[in-house]
Amino acid sequence: MSKPKVIITRRWPQEAEARAMEWFDARLNKEDKPMSVAELQEALRTADAVCPTVSDAISAEVLNATPLRCKILGNFGVGFNHIDLNAARERGLVVTNTPDVLTDCTADIAMTLMLMVARRTGEGERHVRNREWTGWRPTHMIGTKVTGKTLGLIGMGRIARAMAHKAHHGFNMRIIFTDPYPPPQEVIDALQAEARGSIEDVLREADFVSLHCPGGKETWHLINDERLAMMKSSAFIINSARGDVIDPQALVRALKNGTIAGAGLDVYEGEPKVQEEFLAMNNIVLFPHLGSATMETRVAMGLRALENVKTFFDNQEPRDRVV
Ligand code: DGY
Whole-structure pTM over 0.85, yes or no? Predict the structure, then answer.
């Protein structure tokens, strides 16, 4: 029997690409050039499976491709707000994602952002590289202590829990959170975490707020002028979830006016575009969507996406089916 034809939209780590070639009649994107709407549609017309990733917009327009040969979108990534799930459902496509394997590394990046913005380390590094450092002194580049402070989590899924674990057990932080679907009580107890009834309650109380909710219509600009104004003026906001959860203009205003003390961002609305004003500010740390960017995790994401596709073509239920 011939192998299913699979199109992989971007470059993957070598080990994952090798597995794709072993299991499937795979077409790789050696040049790593983003695919256009027309190219994505062609992929849907000519392959049995397409493996897109978080930077491919799989819109209703893309999914309108006819005739449709593709049966499954094996997404490389846990987030799926770039895929129009309703349109995928209507076209009879199965959609899978890659949870679990990126949990720790993404939580590590959220921790890194928190530590960097509080301790001014991005600013400090630029200071040294620019040869501006004139020597140690008691008042030089004073930051904010992290250990023992209150971390407020908006969303308490896998990545938030991993961050809470590191922050609580490593940095003795008190954990507060809000989530419409809270974790089991034993998870909450192990973190000595305290649930709050609303986002607003978390914002008012936390020294550091970290966002861990999915992107999409329901969370679009969840953090706006009004909600930023509820935070302590000494508090920091961290976003390793999805860019559009924060209204970027509201964040610019809050950072300029001292409404909050600082921010750490790994994701941006309309990325890779980054708000021009952010670039000139010292109280914000900016990463280029690095959450899952370790070799171990990216290989695991590729293998997990392929495993989902293989399971599907073996006529079994894929482990990470979203649609
Ligand atoms: C995902 O998988 O959704 C992440 O944003 C990639 O790091």
Answer: yes
The atom of ligand 1 lying closest to the CA of 76 is: 2
Q: Is 127 a catalytic residue?
A: no
Q: Please, are residues 259 and 231 in contact by the beta-carbon 8 Å criterion?
A: yes
Residues 148 and 235 grouped into a single domain: yes
Query: What one-character-per-residue DSSP string does 36-55 give?
Result: PHHHHHHHHHH-SEEE-BTT
How many whole angstroms from 172 Cα to the centroid of ligand 1? Answer: 28
The Cα 35–Cα 40 span in angstroms is: 6
Strand 25-27: give its sheet, edge to edge. Answer: 25-27, 5-8, 49-51, 72-74, 94-96
261 lies in the same domain as 177: yes
Taking only the tens place, the pLDDT of each residue in 33-63 is: 999 999 999 999 999 999 999 999 999 999 9
DSSP lists the bridge partners of residue 58 as 83
CATH number, position 96: 3.40.50.720
Looking at residue 164, its amino acid is: A
Pairing type for strands 150-154 and 49-51 reads: unpaired
**Does residue 149 sit in the same domain as residue 135?**
yes
Specify the number of domains making up the chain.
2
Active site residue 289: yes
Domain span holding position 282:
103-286
Q: Is residue 24 part of a domain?
A: yes
Specify the 3-state DSSP secondary structure of 80. coil
